[in-house]
């Protein structure tokens, strides 16, 4: 591939990644309310019977309602979610879920809305609520869904503004990147194509070493995380901690593979790697940053897997790209030094 084509490919890829990163942050308007409390159920009665809060929508638009009911364990009741405007008109209602659900698009006007979550502790309460809110009975909830006990509920209701053009622009960017990827691969000579796809014996040996140390790293970190979990249990969930351990193990493997020239096949085009990693980094970083900004990375001060896995993955992708960039710079410097030595030896002769 010519130097000019490489520059154009790099600029186009960088531009596409920036566009995708920006679009991934859309909706740029998101409203949310949080409600957290202990709910006790006894004899089909919840105390408190419901939670509610006010949500202020700053502009007219099309929104999706996202209900996130994070809790310590699966509660012995169902959640009925409703939103009404300042005039008491119902704009949204659902029943049956107590974990996570996302609505169809709804039209909302600027103003204040009352968000309420009712705790439904019996089949009769569920049927009555669904009838009152005119929801229908799409979910058949059996009696084993309802039981006595106390559960710590961490409720979040979000309104995410919908942008119809986002999917179109994303599709165009992805299509352009695929075309560039194909063109870069097509630029290989026939001789290069015969070599691409093979690892030599040295690379295969290095891969074995990389996988071994990656596995050892994950195993040791996993054991440490489980044995000493009480030390940091007030700051991070065990699932999020294990996910971090796995990513660190992957980082160790990638480090050895890249530094030992065993990551890429012989003569393989590295531009495709930068394109795919740039795309994954952009999307994960956008989602992760948005969760950090809106506070959903943690619940009651405890970092959760659901809130943190995107930002952790983006750190891994960024590390891999920076490591590869450092390797490329090192190789080019070594090549220049060799050329200088050759020129010096020729001039001496």
Q: Overview of this structure, please?
A:
This protein is α+β, with helices and mostly antiparallel strands. The protein has helices spanning 3-25, 123-132, 165-186, 190-195, 201-227, 229-232, 238-259, 271-294, 305-348; strands at 30-42, 45-47, 50-57, 61-71, 78-84, 90-95, 100-108, 111-120, 149-161, 298-299, 302-303. It has 2 domains: 3-24 and 165-339, no CATH class; 29-161, Sandwich (Jelly Rolls). Strands 2-1-9-4-7 form a 5-stranded antiparallel β-sheet, with no helix packed on it. Strands 3-8-5-6 form a 4-stranded antiparallel β-sheet. Strand 1 (30-42) and strand 2 form a beta hairpin. Helix 1 (3-25) runs antiparallel to helix 3, helix 7 (238-259) runs parallel beside helix 9 (305-348) and helix 8 (271-294) packs antiparallel against helix 9.
Features:
349 residues, 11 strands, Jelly Rolls, alpha+beta, elongated, 52% helix, five-stranded antiparallel β-sheet, single chain
Shape annotation: elongated
How many whole angstroms does the radius of gyration measure?
Answer: 27 Å
Query: How helix-rich are the residues, as a percent range?
Result: 40-55%
The separation of the N and C termini measures: 35 Å
- Counting DSSP E segments of at least 2 residues, the number of strands comes to 11
Average of per-residue pLDDT values: 77
Strand-residue proportion = 15-25%
SSE-based structural type: alpha+beta
Question: What's the number of domains?
Answer: 2
Total helices: the number is 9
Main beta-sheet annotation: 5 strands, antiparallel
Multimeric status of the protein = single chain
- How would you spell out the order of helices and strands? HEEEEEEEEHEHHHHHHEEH
State the low-pLDDT regions, or none. Answer: 190-196
**What topology, given as strand order, has the largest sheet?**
2-1-9-4-7
């Amino acid at each position: 591939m010519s130097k000019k084509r490489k520059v154009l490919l790099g600029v186009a890829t960088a531009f596409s990644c920036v566009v995708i990163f920006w679009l991934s942050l859309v909706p740029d308007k998101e409203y949310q309310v949080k409600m957290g409390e202990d709910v006790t159920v006894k004899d089909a009665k919840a105390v408190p019977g419901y939670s509610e809060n006010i949500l202020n929508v700053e502009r007219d638009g099309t929104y999706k309602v996202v209900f996130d009911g994070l809790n310590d364990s699966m509660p012995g009741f169902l959640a009925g979610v409703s939103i009404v405007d300042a005039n008491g008109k119902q704009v949204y209602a659902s029943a049956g879920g107590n974990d996570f659900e996302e609505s169809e698009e709804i039209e909302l006007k600027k103003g204040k809305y009352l968000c309420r979550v009712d705790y439904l502790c019996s089949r009769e309460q569920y049927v009555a609520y669904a009838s009152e809110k005119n929801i229908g009975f799409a979910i058949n909830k059996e009696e084993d869904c309802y039981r006595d006990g106390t559960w710590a509920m961490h409720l979040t209701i979000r309104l995410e503004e919908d942008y119809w053009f986002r999917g179109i622009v994303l599709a165009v960017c992805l299509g352009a990147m695929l075309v560039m990827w194909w063109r870069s691969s097509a630029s290989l000579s026939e001789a290069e194509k015969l070599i691409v796809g093979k690892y030599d014996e040295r690379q295969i040996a290095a891969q074995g070493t990389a996988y071994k140390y990656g596995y050892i790293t994950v195993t040791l970190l996993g054991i440490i995380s489980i044995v000493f979990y009480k030390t940091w249990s007030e700051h991070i969930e065990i699932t999020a901690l294990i996910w971090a351990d796995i990513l660190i193990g992957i980082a160790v493997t990638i480090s050895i593979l890249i530094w030992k020239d065993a990551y890429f096949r012989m003569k393989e085009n590295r531009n495709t790697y930068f394109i795919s990693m740039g795309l994954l980094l952009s999307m994960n970083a956008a989602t992760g940053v948005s969760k950090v900004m809106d506070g959903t990375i943690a619940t009651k001060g405890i970092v959760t897997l659901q809130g943190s896995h995107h930002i952790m993955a983006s750190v891994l992708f960024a590390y891999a790209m920076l490591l590869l960039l450092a390797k490329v710079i090192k190789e080019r410097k070594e090549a220049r030094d060799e050329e200088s030595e050759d020129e010096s030896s020729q001039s001496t002769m």
